[in-house]
Each structure stands twice: as C-alpha cells, then as structure tokens.
Amino acid sequence: MSHNNAGIHFYFILLIRDFSTPMSTPAFLITAVLAAILSISFPAWPAAPYQFHIEGVSGALRDNIKIYLHKYTDTDHPPGLRLQTTIEQDANTALQALGYYQSDIRVSHDPANPAILQVSVTAGEPVRISQSDIQLTGDAATDADFATLLATQAPKPGQILHHGAYDGFKSALKSLALRKGYFDADFDVARLEVAPELQQAFVRLHFNSGTRYKFGAISFSGHQIAETGLRSLIPFNRGDYYLASQLGEFNQALAATGWFSSILVQGDTSQMQDFSLPIDVALEPQRRNIIETGIGYSTDVKARLKLNWNKPWLNKAGHSLSTKLAVSEIEQSIEAAYKLPLASVANDFYQLQLGFRNRDNQDTQSRESNLALERHWLLSSGWYRTASVRWLYEDFVQADQNDSISLIMPGLSYNRTEQTSGAMPASANRLLLGVEVSDEAWGSDASFVRLRSRLGWIGSAGDNHRFVTRVDAGAILMEGLSQLPPSLRFFAGGDNSIRGYGYETVSPRNSEDELTGGRYMLTGALEYQYRVKGNWWLAAFSDYGSAWDDTPDWVQGVGLGVRWASPVGPVRLDFAWGLDGPGKGFQLHLALGPEL
Predict the structure, then answer these.
(1) Is the pLDDT of residue 12 over 80?
(2) Beta-carbon contacts of residue 177 (< 8 Å; ≥ 6 apart)
(3) Rounded CA separation 521/476 (Å)
(4) Half-sphere exposure of 518 (CA within 13 A, CB side)
(5) What global pTM score does this model have?
(6) Which residue among 45, 52, 246, 390 has its CA within the 20 to 30 Å range from the CA of 307?
(7) Going by DSSP bridges, is the β-strand pair 465-477/348-361 parallel, antiparallel, or unpaired?
(8) 457: burial class by Cβ within 10 Å (0-12, 13-18, 19+)?
(9) CA-CA distance, 34 to 121, in Å (whole number)?
C-alpha cells in the first residue's frame, strides 16, 4: 500500500486452491462485485497547510514572508528541527529580496498544536544602493520615453535595495525598446553587487539600444476589398519610426470594418534591411451573409424578438447592407441601412436608411415611415459628427388627437463616448448633442426646431465602488405642439429614464387624464454601486425629472438594484418606487445593455 496525493489504492488477490472444482455462478458474481468495489481509488486526505504567526515585521516584509512560506504543508514537510531550519532559510530569502540581509529569524512551534508555528523576525538595517551607474547609448539616448522611464523607475543612490524593482526596471527597458522599434537593444553590462556587511549595493546597467527601426513597405494578402481603401486605415506612413501601438490601432481599424473574418498584422523580421521593418497584413474575407437572431426582455417593451441580416461587404469598394427586424408587444420595426465608405473608410462614410415602425403603447398609436441620408465623420478630436436629411411620415393617434403628418428635417449631431474596457467599465463618459429643423418653406407640414442632448458619466473609487450619473434633456421650439407626431414629442419614465414609473408614463395629460407628450424634457439619475462578489453588484439610486409643456411637474423615483456584468453587457434588475404624482408606486425594471 502506497501513499501519494492522488489517493489510496487497495488491491485484493483471490487464491483458488482447487481448480478442479468450478466456482458456482452466484459465488463468482459476488466475488467480482466485491473486487470491483474494493478496487475503487479512494481520495487521500488533503494536505493541511501550517499556520504561521509572523511577529516583528509588517507591511511588505511580512507579506513577502507569507508568500514564501505558503507552500509548507504537514504532508510534504513533517514537523521537526529540519522544518524549522528550512523555514528560517526561506524567510531570510524573502527578506533579502527586499534588501534586508542582516535579519535574525527564529522559528518555534506550539507544543499543543505542531501545525501552528511562531516566526519571530528582527529585520535589521537594510542594504541601500550606494552607487547607480546607469548608462543609455544608441538612439534611445535622446528618446523622451526612455528619459521618463529612467526618471521614474531607475534605482537611485540611497534607496533600499529591492531585487524585484531592479529586475522590473531591466524588463521595462527591454519592453520599451521592443515597443518602439529598438530591435537590436541589449545590455552591455548588467550587474548587481551586494556587500551585506557594508549594507551597500552597487548597480551597473549599460543599455545599448542601437538604431531605431522604421516602418517599411506594407503588403496585403487575401483581401477582397480594394487596396486603396485598406491603406486609408493605416495610422502610419512608410518611413515613420516603428511603434507597436500603431500596429494595434491598425489591427483594430481593420476589425471595425467588419469585412474580414481573420486579421494578422505583423512585421516581417526576415526581410529587415537598412533598419526598416516590412509589415505583412494577412486577411481572410468575412462571410457574404450573416444572420443573427435573439430573444430579449425588458420591462419597457416586454419580450422582444430580433432578427438581423447583414451583408458586411457587397463589392471591392466595401459597401455594406444591414437589415434589422424587431418585434415586441408594443412595438414592431424593420429598417435597412446601406453604407458607402469614402476615401478614409474608417472615418468618413455615407449611409442611406429606410425604416418602418408601428407602436401601440399607453395612449399612443402610430405608424412611421422614415427615409434618411446621413454623412458621418470621425473628427481628430474624437467626436463623431453626423449631418442628415430625414423624411418622416407618421399616421398617429395621441390621446384624443387623430392625425397624420409629413416632415422633411435636416439635422446635425455630435457625439463622443470614452470608456475603459470591460462589461462594467471603471470609467466612462458620453455626450450627445443633436438638432433637427423643419420648415413649411421646403414642404414640411410644420415648422419647428427640435433639440436633444444626453450626458452620462461613470466613475470608480477603488475596485468595489462605482458611480453612475445621467442627464437627459430635450426641447421643441414652435408655437403649438399639437401638430407634431408622438415620435417627436417627449415622454419620460422607464428603465433608462425615471425608474419607479412605467415606460413613457411621465407626460402632460389632457382633461381625460390621457398622455399627450411634452415640448420639454429634463431627467437626471444618480446611482451608487457596490461590488458584492466577482461580477455581482448592488445598487442604490435616485431619479428625478419631468416632461412638460408650460410648467414642469417634477417627479422622483428611488430604489435598489442588482447588477451582473454578463459576457454580453450589464444586466440590471431594479426595484423602484415612484414618489410623486400620477403613476407613483412600485415598479420592477429589467434591462440588458450599456448604462449610459
């Protein structure tokens, strides 16, 4: 019988002395079953770790000792003098890594419980850096990024020796060199000398970066899009100094087009000449047709079925077509968008959109037809600018009004979104500003100016605290609201507006208490989130706002919520109470999607 971490195995041998007498069938079966049961591998008892009570040091010194001693268990290291000696050696190594070479360490055990060990530490005086001879030669000697690295991370005289920081600085030099194209960089001298009895350390690092490489020729293979369009995505020019981050930007720009199923951007080191690195781009076309289906639910629109049909590329110019169908209890819509990239395919394009929508919600019934031509720019400041001309025809019933209208509306909008990565980013901000204008002079049935804005911000304090704020505003400048269709009026309430109130139930009302929609809207939300564990968060929030014609009737909603950072985005479950006016009471909100 043997012991190991895998388990304990029992083996039984059956000796049959009289082979002339056959074993009866029942006896044979019983023996076979017993043999099978007894041959099962039973797991061994898990190894129990020792408990260490470390005294005399704190902070980083104590933490590093704990890391070095974490490996000890009673199975691999039985109690005794040999164990204590080994622990003293490891604890001493842990302290030396942080510059303490003159330590006195004593280990003793609790007689009543050998699994508990006392580690008494007297760290002594640390070793400090006496001389720091750091030299940088080659093209990096005049590189501002290397100067910053030396100023912030280089070992300096008088500092306590930290082996991890020393090794980290060496790695940082090599890493920066690779990121910036110093492919021949290496250390001429890399030496750390320690004189423990003098409590001194001597650092000698001579780093020769060599010549910085530049981007060479860029070649494409496997592509179905005209090369002129692909080259407009390149964020650098041939002859520019190499930057790995720009290769990453190029890769992201290619991925954002949706034209390719596989993208590989890499330098061809076998063809480097005259300190120039050629860039190879290997591509594989995306499928011609992509169909996506999905089922979702939110308390605003109830269950929703989605069907998307995309054609990521139609020709060598990179034109694309997308079609979206969405069906829910209160709203059904279908829309198609044809995208025409321009010379700079990532930043500039035209888009032609056609859509139809039917709505039946509260006191609103409408059938919309939209046709829009849009021009999109990505500005160097990071803002997206969109200029558009939209034709809207809407046949509607809003409360006691039954009408139809045709509008031609030029528009202009700016929006910008910045955020860190992850389903629930640690920081983010979003700003949207838009205006649409209609005038009877060019064939519209009404004259007005419609303004729309949305501001959102997410911030964090540490890893477990998040804050989310939103402000949503709108205004219609015209003499009378009755001419406008429901899709252009303002309603508030719902999971992305004032929680505690039903979807679009915060609105002016007529004499029959029917919702009419408002000329103005202003809502705000303030939310605090606390991470309970992993991807799960608890939230507390307060929302405030109104939609009105002449005088706002402010309402407030408060509540608690649960957040889950799912792989497809935040899932939000809110328990909310409306505190004011019509519609106040309890509401349950469930939503999936971005928080801003």
Answers:
(1) no
(2) 140, 183, 185, 209
(3) 9
(4) 25
(5) 0.76
(6) 390
(7) unpaired
(8) middle
(9) 56
pLDDT at 16 over 70: no
- In this prediction, residue 32 has a pLDDT band, given cuts at 50, 70 and 90, of very low
Inter-residue contact 439 to 446 (CB < 8 Å): no
Q: Judge whether 584 and 559 are in contact, CB under 8 Å.
A: no
Place of tokens 């890893």: 463
Distance separating alpha carbons of residues 474 and 454, to the nearest angstrom:
9
Do 541 and 498 meet the contact criterion of CB atoms below 8 Å apart? no
Distances (CA, A) of 297 to 93, 331, 495, 505, 593: 58, 13, 12, 19, 11
Tell me if 485 sits within 8 A of 394, measured CB to CB: yes
pLDDT at 78: 76
User: Cβ(330)–Cβ(357) under 8 Å?
Assistant: no
Confidence tier at 171 by pLDDT (50, 70, 90): very high
Give me the chain's average pLDDT, please: 89
Q: Answer for the pair 540, 557: CB distance below 8 angstroms, yes or no.
A: no
Backbone angles phi, psi at 524, to 5 degrees: -145, 150
Here the tokens at position 531 are: 């991470």
Q: Is pLDDT of 6 > 60?
A: no
Q: What is the 3-state secondary structure (H, E, C) of 344-395?
A: CCCCEEEEEEEEEEEEEECCEEEEEEEEEEEEEEECCCCCEEEEEEEEEEEE
Among 387, 362, 360, which residue's Cα sits nearest to residue 376? Answer: 387
Of 303, 301, 350, 361, the closest CA to residue 496 belongs to 301
Report the interhelical angle of 163-179 vs 244-257 (nearest 10°): 60
Residue 102 in tokens: 């003159």
Tell whether the model's pLDDT for residue 188 goes beyond 50.
Answer: yes
Tokens of 39: 């041959």
Tell me the per-residue pLDDT of 558-584, one tens digit each, with 9 for 90 and over: 999 999 999 888 999 999 999 998 878
| CB-facing half-sphere around the CA of 82: CA atoms within 13 A | 5
In single-letter form, the type of residue at position 576 comes to A
Rounded to whole angstroms, the Cα distance separating 370 from 563 reads 36
State the sign of the Cα–Cα–Cα–Cα dihedral 53, 56, 59, 63: negative
Gap between the Cα atoms of 345 and 231, Å rounded = 9
CA 244: distance to chain centroid? 21
The dihedral formed by the CA atoms of 134, 136, 142 and 144, expressed in degrees to the nearest 10: -60
What is 535-556 written as a DSSP string?
Answer: TEEEEEEEEEEEEESSS---EE
140's CB contacts (< 8 A; 6+ apart) are: 146, 177, 180, 182, 185, 207, 209, 212
Cα 349 off chain centre by: 27
DSSP 8-state class, residue 24: P
Angle at 370 between CA 364 and CA 371, to 5 degrees: 170
Q: Do the Cβ atoms of 576 and 569 come closer than 8 Å?
A: no
What is d(CA 65, CA 200) in angstroms, rounded to the nearest whole number? 22
pLDDT tens digit string along 87-144?
999 999 999 999 999 999 999 877 778 788 889 999 999 999 999 999 999 999 999 9
Give the CA count within 13 Å in the CB-facing half-sphere of 177. Answer: 23
Let me know the angle formed at the C-alpha of 432 by 430 and 436, rounded to the nearest 5 degrees.
Answer: 170
% pLDDT > 90, the chain: 75
CA angle 232, 236, 237 (to 5 degrees): 90
Report helix, strand or coil for 140. Answer: helix
Say how far apart CA 243 and CA 227 lie, in whole Å: 22
